[in-house]
Specification:
This protein has 196 residues and is an alpha+beta fold. It has two domains: 88 residues, no CATH class; 74 residues, no CATH class. It is built from eight helices and seven strands. Helix 6 crosses helix 7. The two termini are 18 Å apart.
Length: 196
């Protein structure tokens, strides 16, 4: 997930025939650098993304909440799909302890609930626990953060928890052991702002 969020790779999600994210009234951001994607989407389906610089566009959905590029239950531009689609991963919700989120997108929530995780190492298990601790702090203590620092959108909140989870880990200088910690929200906010 982290590599996909950094833009180093696509998500490797075993979607199979699932189209939950394509049929859940999602707006899809398309950046100005995505020329191949833009060449494969009719311009009348795109509009300027709110609060983003010119050239950042959004692909909407039809009256049924379906992506207009979904044809016969398949993506008609799969090889040229937007980066947003390439990196979307419903596993992010159970990864951060939000299995039933987003409630307003029941098909995505249903798919997210089916994922279970195994860990190759203790370090992997600790990183998972740290991501869950970050999401829990954001969900249970939103008032401890300045306005706009922690998103209310479940997907953006889950992404932030993955991006900032390392702040919830501390290595003991004497033993070298890594533990999950509960940092002060003020310290977490400083790190979030610093990384933007």
């Amino acid at each position: 997930m982290q590599r996909a969020l950094r833009g180093d790779a696509s998500s490797d999600v075993a979607c199979g025939d699932c189209t939950a994210c394509c049929t859940s009234s999602q707006f899809v951001h398309i950046g100005p650098e995505e020329a191949s994607t833009l060449a494969h989407i009719p311009s009348e389906l795109l509009f300027q993304a709110p609060r983003l610089p010119k050239g950042h566009l959004v692909l909407g959905y039809d009256q049924n909440g379906h992506c207009p590029m979904l044809v016969d239950h398949q993506c008609s531009i799969y090889e040229h799909r937007p980066l947003t689609c390439r990196t979307y991963d419903c596993r992010i919700f159970p990864a951060v302890g939000m299995e039933r989120e987003p409630a307003e997108k029941p098909e995505i929530a249903r798919q997210a609930q089916r994922w279970e995780f195994t860990f190759a190492t203790r370090a992997d298990r600790r990183r998972h626990a740290a991501a869950r601790a970050a999401a829990a702090m954001f969900r249970t203590q939103p008032g401890r953060f300045s306005a706009g620092v922690v998103p209310s959108n479940p997907t953006q909140l889950a992404v932030l928890a993955i991006e900032i989870h390392d702040v919830f880990l501390r290595t003991d200088a004497d033993t070298g052991r890594v533990a999950v910690i509960s940092p002060r929200p003020e310290d977490v906010e400083v790190e979030i702002v610093h990384r933007k």
